[in-house]
Known about the structure:
By secondary structure, chain A is an alpha/beta fold.
Amino acid sequence: MSTESITGSTTVMLVDDEPLVRAGLRAIIDVEPDLSVVAEASDGAEVGPIVSRDRPDVILMDVRMPAVDGIQATRLLMDRYDEPPRILVVTTFENDDYVYDALQAGAHGFLLKRTRPEQIVQAIRTVVQGDSLVFPAAIRQLAASRRGGGGDALASAGLSDREAEVLRLVAAGLSNGEIAEKLFVGHETVKTHVGNVLTKLGVRDRTQAVIAAYESGFISPR
Amino acid sequence: MTNVVRTTLRRGVHLLLGGVILIPYLLLGVGFVQMFLEPDVPKVPLIVLVAVTVLIGAIPPVLPAMRHLEITATRNLLDVDLPDPVADPPWETRLLGAAWYVLHLLCGGLAILTVLIVAPLAVMLIAQGFGADEGWSSTASMPIVDRIDGPLAFLAAPALVLAAFAIFALLGAGLAQLAPLLLGPSPAELMAALETQAEEFAERNRLARELHDSVGHALTVTTVQAAAARRVLETDPEFVRRALSAVEEAGRSAMEDLDHVLGVLRTGSAADAATDDPAGPQRTLADLARLVDDTRAAGVTVDAVVEGDLDTIPPAVSREAYRIVQECLTNAMRHAGPVPVVLRVAATSAGLDLQVSNPMPPGMPRRSSRGGRGLRGIRERVRLLRGEFSAEGQAGQWRVHVRLPARSDARGGA
């Protein structure tokens, strides 16, 4: 499951049209021993070639950019790679319509630009491990404001009771390890359940699974 | 039930008012018909007289004052909710108002006719019920009524009154139904109101977007840079130094943007209400001399020429013009330094003509995005006032030219 590169540190790419934001994020990330910024781009249009050259583990992707926005760039990477880089959408405002679109396009999580630096680096680590949600509360809020578009994709998915329970815990923000503890089962069992949920829902990531769960009303965002 | 009675009584008053206004028209009409039937009266002068009278009679119904009066009466007596009449309604609205006037008078006539028939008949019937039929029937020859007497007469009288009441209720309800159509805002007025609303909505969206782009952006830069600086405080003092200056710059430009956006917001409300917040009187072109003096005090040579009477410029335009001049002078100072600035303000009956020019420093524009934003503010204000705007550098001179129409209600709408 580890996507760490040979150097042992997680490689990060920054995509943002504002150089000052990139410089700030770079300083925040580079100071961490286990993280390093290996590439920068100022527009979604530049992302493709740079990713194929540098293969970063994580991309911090701004949403609004002049030529190609973060949603299109995310979609492109999801289409092109079997194991695309983990994408964290970075945005100024929480209720940004585009963030939701980006998450649906396949982004693995989202990050507000005002997030504290400690949480930014933690989010990068979390998204690399891939076994828990990044900022589950924020995703819930986003889903709450966008209820009702998804139909009953979940009813037809035919989840077992156990899988449904695992999905609820995933949506609550629990990691695989925490779910395993809570259900008194092995870590591998949880991974299998999560894998089954993703397959049955036809999504490639737990973030998408949770969004589908909120959209179909399977989980109520309150 | 008492509600129906009360409503019908009030509507009855409205109807009778219409009927009373109808009477002189009827008398005139009858008089003219009699004159036409009289062989001695010369026909040509009579036709002229009739034509003049009809013309005079046709004027009041289309007057806005009459419509105003009818709206007030209709609101109070017919219990119909109507919006306030506009000061200068379009012709379509006036004609509808006239149609209402005619309808009101005709229905009123019917109502008065009803009263004139029912009241004596009812009295007569009651009298006959008491057996006093002789005296009545000889004067008013009413064959049907003649044959009703005794207990039947006592029943017929209230039945007649009830029927009259029903006629009043029907006429009143009919008028109340038609009132919104004829006295309410016309489709054109509704359209104009909708357009104004849409414009305001677009304006709000634009401001939201502007706040998002400018202030949101600046705060983002500030937050990220400050956060980064805190993380590398010990290890990278050079980064911290750059971060601090970036934070300072971002804050400053955000304040400018905020200033501008708030300015537009204030203007928006000032255009609606003629009187401003008394706590903060807004500067107008009347304060131009002070502005020029202040600018001179800052070390800028200002060559100011004012033509025409600035007092003739509407306040809203004057306020905006003051801000535009202020922004131009500030821009010149910021971008070009203490250079000689030529300011020309010309007031005509058509509007206001503003020109500000100054020599460009070498390598200008240094910071196109910042300068662009200040100019964008001016352009936005000019657009709101439906004016013209140009800004360009030519032969080493930076020249801003603004033309504002004199109409103060330039934002359109009803």
